[in-house]
Amino acid sequence: DTGVSQDPRHKITKRGQNVTFRCDPISEHNRLYWYRQTLGQGPEFLTYFQNEAQLEKSRLLSDRFSAERPKGSFSTLEIQRTEQGDSAMYLCASSSLPGGANYEQYFGPGTRLTVT
Amino acid sequence: GDSVTQMEGPVTLSEEAFLTINCTYTATGYPSLFWYVQYPGEGLQLLLKATKADDKGSNKGFEATYRKETTSFHLEKGSVQVSDSAVYFCASSGVGQGAQKLVFGQGTRLTINP
What span, in angstroms and rounded, lies between the C-alpha atoms of A5 and A75? Predict the structure, then answer.
C-alpha cells in the first residue's frame, strides 16, 4: 500500500482560471476527505465522501468548488474562476472504519495552489 | 461549534529538554482527540490519539492524556531530540453527525537545537 497520493503537488494558475486536483486514497478505504490549509493555520474541513456519496460539505465550500468521487475510488476537487484567496494547500485524507468516533485519517502530501 | 485551541508558537528548545504543548477543545459531547505531526516537506502523520476520558495516547516518547474536567489534551515528551523539529497539530473529531471530520488547532512549530 503506497498511501494517499495527490496530483499535482504544486499548481500555479492565473486568477479566473479553473483548476482540478486529484486524490487517490488508500485502496479499499471507503471514506475520503478534503481539507484546506492556509499558511500558519491548521487544516479546515471542506467535504467528505463515503464511497461515491458526498455526505457533508462545509460552508467554506463556495459554489465555485465542486468535488466528485464517481466510482468510490479516486476523487477530484475542482475550483472554477480561481481567486487569490483560494491560494492554499489542499489536503486529501482517507479512512477505512465504517463509523463511530474511533477512526484514523491518513493524509496525502497535499496540492499547493498559488493563484496569481 | 467545535473548536481546538493550541499553545502559540514557535517553540524553541534545546535537545533533551522537556516539552509541553498545550491543547484545549470545546465540544458539545466527548470527541476523540488526536495529535498530528508535520515534518518539513511531508504530509500530516498521526502521532497519537485518545478516544475517551482519562485515556492516554503515546507514541515515540510523546504522551497526551484526555482530561474531560479541563477539556485538555496536552502533548508532552520528557527529552526531545533534534529530529522532533516539526509542526504539531491538535485535533478533535466531531461528535454525532459531525463525527467524520477533524477540527484542527492552528499548529505549533517546534524547533529543537542541538
Answer: 11
Cα–Cα distance, A5 to A109 (Å, whole number) = 7
Residue of chain B whose alpha carbon sits nearest to that of A41: B106
Judging contacts by C-beta atoms under 8 Å, the chain B residues touching residue A44 are 104
| Nearest by Cα to A28 from A73, A69, A93, A75 | A73
Contact map slice: B 30-89 vs A, CB within 8 A = 31-32, 36, 42-46, 49, 51, 89
Is B1 a residue whose pLDDT tops 80? Answer: no
C-alpha to C-alpha distance for A38 and B106, rounded to whole angstroms: 10
Predicted confidence (pLDDT) per residue in B25-38, tens digit? 998 778 889 999 99
Q: Among A48-62, B11-25, B76-90, which stretch is predicted with the lowest mean pLDDT?
A: A48-62
Which residues does chain A have with pLDDT short of 70? Answer: 1, 97-103
- A48 closest CB neighbour out of B101, B104, B106: B101
Q: Give the cell for residue A42.
A: 491548521
In 3-state terms, what secondary structure has residue A15?
A: coil
Query: What is the b/e burial string over A59-71, where b = at least 16 CB atoms within 10 angstroms of the residue's CB?
Result: eebeeebebebee
Q: Which of A101, A115, A99, A105 is nearest to A35 (CA)?
A: A105
